[in-house]
Amino acid sequence: MSHLLEFEHVSYSYHSIGGETLALSDISFNLTAGEFLAVVGPSGCGKSTLLNLICHLTEPEQGRILYKGEALTKDSVRSIGYMLQKDHLFQWRSIEKNIYLGLEIQKKLTPKTKEYAAHLLQKYGLYEFRHKKPSELSGGMRQRAALIRTLVLSPTLLLLDEPFSALDYQTRLNTANDIGSIIRGEQKSAVLVTHDLSEAVSLADRILVLSPRPGKVRRVITTSFPDDMTALKRRGTNEFKDYFNMIWKEMNGDEESTYSAGTIC
Ligand code: ADP
Ligand code: MG
Asked: CA angle 82-182-102, nearest 5°?
């Protein structure tokens, strides 16, 4: 199978007046086209740094990153979409105009791309809200709009940085379910970073467990759920609890008692 993205022994440090902070150390992994990869690790272990490296906001100090088999460059980033914790929708623009934003910036706003935007709005239940302002939508709907704004640019790879953490618990579960189904339905490849283990298990095909800073790959866990099983359905299975406990132990050590995934997920 072809690899869309490859990290080969990547390390990265921040340099400031206060000194050097090693954020990521010797990170190697790959992402197959169409795969949903989650990266979990405690706060400050380098998850956002890892995404910044993928979209070339910064470059590795050591090691290399390959995208579609070639060294990652600024040009590669054109086919990479980035979705953040906050929806970053402009309050003075309608949902439709927000969704056109990336197309406008890239000078790709054409009748064809407008039609595609309308299709995505319709498909994902936001068409009737297209003339509303973001403040008139719920948090979950705004995150869906933010995802559509990214999808309308037809990215090959989606990067998601804790995209649900600003939402309340119930909205978070439903929105993660919706966004997971949309990403799978559109057959996109994705890298989701999160500190929420249950979110990772409910969404990903493979989970990269990072150590506290400097982030190192502690373990890679492949999940095995039926292709058409939604994130919410996954949460109700015994396998879900097993994967959760596996990662929990990996992050907290074997001596820690096993957390009952059922009570907190
Ligand atoms: P995460 O997303 O996992 O919470 P980050 O990738 O944001 O972690 O940061 C990793 C580490 O690098 C943290 O310890 C953080 O304090 C440090 N760091 C992040 N950005 C900077 C910066 N601009 N300058 C110095 N240190 C930084
Ligand atoms: Mg972060």
From this structure: 35
Q: Is the dihedral of CA 86, 91, 95, 101 positive or negative?
A: negative
> How many CA atoms, within 13 angstroms, populate the side-chain half-sphere of residue 16?
5
Nearest CA to ligand 1 atom 24: 14
Q: Tell me: the pLDDT tens digits for 184-212?
A: 998 999 999 999 999 999 999 999 999 99
**Nearest ligand, CA 24:** 1
List of residues 6+ apart from 128 with CB closer than 8 A: none
45 in contact with ligand 1, CB cutoff 6 A: yes
Task: Determine if ligand 1 sits within 6 Å of the CB of residue 17.
Answer: no
Is the distance from CB of 191 to CB of 51 less than 8 angstroms? yes
Beta strands, E only, 165-248:
189-194, 206-210, 217-222
pTM of the model: 0.91
Q: Is 194 in the pocket of ligand 1 (CB under 6 A)?
A: no
Rounded Cα distance between 144 and 250, Å, is 32
Number of H helices, E strands in the chain: 9, 10
Residue 233 confidence (pLDDT) above 90? yes
| Ligand 1 atom at minimum distance from 43 CA | 4
